[in-house]
Amino acid sequence: MDIKEFFEMSAGKWFSQRTSHHLAFKQSESGKSDIRIEMLPANDPEVIKLCEQYEINPSLAWGGARVTWDGTMEWDQEKHTGSSVLVPIPDPDKPGEGKLLRDVGYAEKAGVAGRYVMGSDGALTLITEYETMYSEERLWFASPNLRLRTSILKRFGGFSMASFCSEIRLGVTTPPAAANAAEVKS
């Protein structure tokens, strides 16, 4: 599986349950979110704008995705909503690796360019380094409609948070990429 196939398999509506462990405080909390992932074509103005922001030729992008979330965390019960555009830029010299451009970061609200690695097992690892933080997420499909995600966040040289999420696809029994692959084989 390559990065484009992973994104295509991720398209749709998801229900996410998260458990986060705050290591410094020796506390854990749970949360839940509704997530929507929609594919963006290469000529989408947001894809082009993000490429230009990082001085990357937009022709190197096959497209991207818009991720929108609406959720709550146990400790504050406030709504956490937002949206981010993600644009992977494959490395021509390293198959399965590349840059991941984001208009909103995972750990900070500013845009950031991280990197990704597609494992031979089909898992996607996202690595983002900020000025004072480091985040690493690993995402994989247990089945077409069940996606799992782990993440770690390091601040000031030590781990500060670890999370585990299970994400269940809502309303669609076959992801678009899997449906297209089945049609091609017929």
Features of the shown structure:
186 residues; 10-stranded antiparallel beta barrel; disordered C terminus
In short:
This protein has 186 residues and is mostly beta strands.
Word description of this protein:
The protein is mainly β. The protein has helices spanning 3-10, 45-53, 176-185; strands at residues 12-22, 27-41, 63-73, 79-90, 97-102, 112-118, 124-129, 133-143, 146-155, 158-170. Strands 1-2-3-4-5-6-7-8-9-10 form a ten-stranded antiparallel β-barrel. The two termini are 20 Å apart. Residues 181-186 have low confidence and may be disordered.
Helix and strand topology:
Elements: H1 3-10, E1 12-22, E2 27-41, H2 45-53, E3 63-73, E4 79-90, E5 97-102, E6 112-118, E7 124-129, E8 133-143, E9 146-155, E10 158-170, H3 176-185
Antiparallel strand pairs: 1-2, 1-10, 2-3, 3-4, 4-5, 5-6, 6-7, 7-8, 8-9, 9-10
EC number: 4.-.-.-
InterPro entries: Calycin, CpcS/CpeS
Protein name: Chromophore lyase CpcS/CpeS
